[in-house]
Amino acid sequence: MFNPEFRRNLWLEVTPHRLIGMPLVLGAMFLLAYLLNDQEWGQGVANLALTLCGLISMLWGASLAAESILSEVRSHTWENQRMSAMSAWDMSWGKLLGATIYSWYGAAICLLVYLTSADKPFSVVIKVMLLFVLCGLFSQSVALVASLQILKKDRSVARSQATVYAVFGLMAAAPLLQLAFNQKISAEWYGITMNYMDFVLISLVFYVAWAWIGIYHAMRSELQMQHGIWGWTLFVIWLMGYLMGFVDDALVMRWGGVGSSRLLVACLVALVLTYLMIFVESKDPVIFLRLKTMFEQKKWQQISRILPCWFITLLFAFMICMTLASVFPVGKGFESSLFFVALYLFVLRDVCIILWVNFSQQRKRADITAVLYLIVLYGLLPSIANATGLDILDIFFFPQGEGNAFMGTCIVAVQFAIVLWFTKKRWQSNYDIRTVVHE
Amino acid sequence: MIKVEHLCFEYPGVRALDDVSFTVEKGSVVALVGPNGAGKTTLLHCLAALDQPLSGVIYLDGDDITQHPRMTHRKTGYLPDFFGLYEDLTVERCLRYHACAHGIEADKVEHAVQQAAERLDISDRMQVRAKELSRGLRQRLAIAQAIVHEPPLLLLDEPASGLDPEARHSLATLFLSLRDLGLTLIVSSHILTELEAYSTHMLVMRQGKIISQDVIHGYESSVASCQLRLKLASDFPELDSVLKNIGGISAIQIDDQADVWQASFSFSCDKTLQHNLLKQLIESHVPIASFAEEKRDMHAAYLDKMQETDHV
Q1: Which chain B residue has its CA at the smallest distance from A290's CA?
Q2: Do A4 and B105 touch (CB under 8 A)?
C-alpha cells in the first residue's frame, strides 16, 4: 500500500499553484543571472544553480523536515500519528521525503539548470549533483533526527522554530560540501588512496544511512516500540573505525605508534559522544527511577532497552581510557598512564555535575546551568589561576600527564567522590523518596 | 477486556497514578471521573500505550500492552483532551488518511470512510476543509477519525468539553449507538449528567488512586445491591432491631430526627427478594408508609464518594 504519511504530505505540499510558482521564481532568478553574465548560459548560471540548490535542500528542506514533527506536536495531531498502525520505517520515510518534497522539486530544477550550464566534464557534473543530493538528504535527516531526539527530551520545544534544527542539519552537511571542493586530489584512509570527491561521496552515503537509522530508532521510541543498545553501539564502533582510518604518519610519530594513535582517536570519539549525548538526551529522574526499579527486579533485558546512549559511550570511554593507561605512551611510565585515569575521572565528575543539576526540583534550564558550571570549571577558574601566577593550581582543573600526575589524579578522585555524594543525596531527597503532590 | 494491576506512573517528583487496579468488561461504557489532577488523562495515556508506566501491568484482551504497544494502538481509538486536525485537508481526506494509517486495506478504505462519516453525521461535509468546521463538527470529525478503523476499545478524554447542549446530546446518542455496536468505551468527563445517559460503570479517581468502581443504576446484575428507602407512618423505635434481624440488609441508616421516621439501607436488587422483605416488614408490624428503591444520580454518587474520602 502507498505510504499514507507520504501521501498526506503530498496532499498538503504539492498544489497546482505551488507547482507553477517554484519554476516561475527560479526561472526569473536564472534569467537575471543569464543577463548579468553577458547573456551566457555558463558557469555563472551554474554557480547560482548550485547555491540555490544548497539553500533549498540543505536549509529550507532541513527546516521542513524538522517541522514535519514539530508541527504535529504543536497542532496536537502527533498522538494520533503515534497511535496509527504505520510502521516506524513508513512513518520515517513518509515524513522525511514527504514533508520535503516541495524543496526537492525546487532543488531538482536547480540541478537541471546546473547540468545544462556547467562548464565541466560530464563525470564531474554528475558527481557534484550527487554530492548536493546527498548533502541535502544528510542535512534534512540530521534536522529530523535532532527534532525527534530533542522532542523526546522536552515536548515544549515543539514551540521552537524549525530553523534551529535546520541550522543543525546545515552544520552537519556544510563541512562535507566544503571538503568536496577542497583542492586536494586524493584522500588517504587506512593507507588506501582514492579520489577525494569519491571518498567524500562514499562517506556521505554512510552518513546518510546512519542518519536514517537514527531517525528510525527515534521514531520507534516515539511509537513506544522497544529497541536495544545495538544501534547506538554499532554507530559508535563505526564512527571510531571510520575516524581511526585518518591517523597518518605525523600523528603516529607524535603519539608513539599506530595502535596508540588509533586508540586516542577512539577515546576522543567516545568522550565527545558522551558529552554530546548527555546534553541531548533526557535526564528525566523517572528514567533513573525506572532503571533502579528494573535493576532491583533484575530485568536486565529491559534495562538494556532504556539505557541512555551516553551511558554506553561512557562505558566505551572507560574501556579505552584504561587500555590507554596500560599501554600509552610506551616508555614514559606511570605518570603518563595516570593521565588517562585522571581524564576519565574528570569525565565522571562532569557527568555527576550534569546529573546533579538535573536532579534539582527546578529542572528548567538545567542543561544550560550545567554548561555554565563546566565553563567556570574549565575556563574561568583556570584563567584566574593563571592570571594570578598560580599555575600550580592547574592540577585542580585538568588531567595531568607529568609532574604532579599522581597528586592531580588524587585531587580529581576526591572531586568526583564529593560531586557523586551530592548527586546521590539530591536524588534521594527529591526523587527516590517519593513525594506525592497532586494539587 | 481490560485488566489493570498495580499501575504506578510518575512524573518527576509526582506520583500521578498510585497502585491503580481495576477491570473493564467488554461492551461496557466506563465513566472516568474525578477532580482536576486526579490522574484521569495519565491513565488514558497509559491505556492507549502512549506512555510507559513506572510499574504495574495493563492487559488488553489478555496481552500486556507495555510489551505490545503497537497491537494496542491497532485495537484502540483515542480522542485526546486537546485533539488536533489537519486543518487544510478536507473531511474526506482526513478520514481517508486515518483509515490508511490504521492499515485498512485499500479496497475497504472507501467503505470505512463513508461508514465513519455516516455514524458521525458528517457525510454531507466531506469536501469541507477541517478549518472551516464548527466546534461541534470538529469534535465529530475527531471522533470519526478515532473510530474509522472500528477499534474494539475507544478512549475519550473530555469529549464534550466546549460543546453546546444540542451537540452534547447528539454526542450522548452517538456513544449509545457505539455501545450498542459492542464497542467498549472509557470516557473521562466532568459533565456527569451526560455521562449518566450512556455509562454503565463509574470509575472515580482521586490523587492518582481509584477510590471506587461502581455499576451505574439500571445496569446492575440481579445479585447487585440496591439502596432502599423506607418511610414510616408513625414512630417505631424497634425498627433498627427488626431490620438487623432480617438477612441481606446492610448499611442501615435510621433517621428519627424529623417528624417522619425513615430508614435507608442496602439490599438485593432482585424484585422477588424485595417483595419478600416487604412481606416480612409488614408481618413484623412495621407501620410502612412507603417502600422504594432510592435512585441516586451519578452526580450524587460521585459527591458521596468524594465526601467519603474527605473523611478518611
Answers
A1: B54
A2: no
